[in-house]
Design goal:
With about 400 residues, this protein is an alpha/beta fold. It is built from 14 helices and 17 strands. The strands form 4 sheets. It has an 8-stranded mixed beta sheet, sandwiched between helices.
């Protein structure tokens, strides 16, 4: 085998088959994503990648989709790489026995090996001369001691990439995400990078300057750190739009605890939310604050297509919660015609007109308004336009830079 890679356990394709693969990729591109581990090592797709590099040497640029997966051990990577190939290669019985024995030595259960080679666990036990039963089968470790086999296929984080550049970004991101912070689901590169940033060591909180007049203060970083020094019971309103995907749900509980500490008695939290995880969002908020109402913001743009429940969504909720005692004096309409999509500053940006409308209704000129998820800076601009004092935080460096540029240039 030429240039054997760490997780390449099968011979290179015969010359004629490899030539056919090269021509197919030249004509149609790479049809099956190439898999990499968290270090950028190839787990699956060695021949496809070899073909791409050969075409590149000929001056033919072929981009490819990929998947980046983090693993907890080298043995787990070896088992995974073998499993993917065993399911689609035509091997002799002796070759299957050889790979089955290697997988067992790495800690795969009889059932995991059997599924990979498409036989029953009893056959694997005979092949590997394992005298144990499926329930108590053991494998020998590097130290010579035998331990119970533990590996079986599991759900793990998979980062989908569309290009080689995205692959490099994904590898850099997943290497920084601790095992306990990795969602067992498929995510895109931007979410992987966001999780990586959130996992970076937090810097000590800096003292919060006194906010006077119509001052606008924006901080780069995680709100749990960079806004920690805001004095307790000093904030009049928190107006924000947290991220909606499932992996960000823990942030709602942290935000609710933050609000309970920083809001004045009677101060309000108004938060946009998606509809997919409403029970979890509401529970996180009610653990710390009193529920007031739900406002429906009807969108003016195209409806959003929610695939899994097959829903065309035409509205978005804003939850109103407050730090007790709740003493509302102003009337508030719970149906609002949205001002239309505005995405020039951030991909998740809400309308400036909406922010100004609710900030006027839920606070007074001179009040302190906080946004823990600043995004493109809409809340900051709305506070500047309505005469409120403002403090906000944004963990995404690029979005923070856009916000500062937006405020510096006096943009709406």
């Amino acid at each position: 085998m030429s240039d054997r890679q760490p997780y390449q356990f099968f011979e290179d394709l015969p010359a004629d088959q490899f030539a056919a693969l090269v021509e197919d990729i030249r004509a149609n591109g790479v049809r099956v994503p190439i898999e990499f581990d968290e270090n950028g090592a190839t787990l699956d797709g060695h021949q496809r990648l070899r073909a791409v590099k050969l075409l590149a040497d000929e001056g033919v640029k072929v981009d490819y989709a990929s998947q980046v997966r983090p693993f907890t051990s080298e043995a787990e990577k070896r088992i995974h790489a073998r499993t993917l190939n065993l399911r689609r290669r035509h091997l002799t019985r002796e070759q299957m026995k050889e790979h089955a024995a290697a997988m067992r030595k790495d800690g795969a259960t009889l059932e995991a090996v059997a599924a990979a080679v498409n036989v029953d666990p009893e056959t694997v036990r005979r092949w590997t001369h394992d005298e144990s039963t499926s329930a108590n089968a053991k494998v020998e470790g590097k130290d010579g001691k035998k331990r119970p086999a533990t590996y079986k296929p599991r759900k793990s984080t998979t980062v989908q990439c569309k290009t080689a550049k995205e692959t490099a970004r994904a590898v850099a991101a997943v290497a920084k995400i601790p095992d306990d912070k990795q969602p067992a689901t498929t995510i895109d590169v931007k979410r992987a990078e966001r999780l990586a940033r959130e996992s970076e060591p937090k810097t000590p909180p800096t003292p919060e300057p006194e906010i006077t007049g119509t001052e606008i203060i924006c901080r780069a970083g995680d709100f749990r750190t960079v806004l920690a020094a805001i004095p307790p019971a000093s904030v009049d309103l928190i107006f924000t739009d947290p991220p909606y995907p499932k992996e960000f749900l823990p942030l709602w509980a942290d935000m609710a605890a933050f609000a309970a500490e920083k809001l004045k008695p009677g101060g309000c939290l108004a938060a946009y939310s998606g509809q997919s995880h409403l029970p979890d969002v509401i529970q996180s908020l009610t653990n710390h604050l009193d529920y007031i109402w739900t406002i429906a913001v009807r969108g003016r743009g195209p409806k959003t297509q929610i695939f899994q429940p097959r829903i065309w969504s035409a509205w978005k909720p804003i939850f109103l919660f407050a730090k007790p005692p709740v003493l509302r004096t102003e009337w508030l309409d719970d149906l609002f015609e949205g001002t239309g999509p505005e995405k020039d500053a951030h991909g998740w940006q809400q309308g400036l007109g909406e922010a100004e409308h609710f900030i006027r209704l839920l606070s007074e000129p001179g009040d302190i308004v906080v946004d823990p998820f600043l995004g493109g800076g809409t809340t900051a601009v709305a506070c500047r336009n309505t005469g409120r004092r403002f403090i906000g935080a944004e963990i995404d460096a690029a979005a923070y830079g856009q916000t500062m540029e937006r405020l510096k240039n006096g943009k709406a």
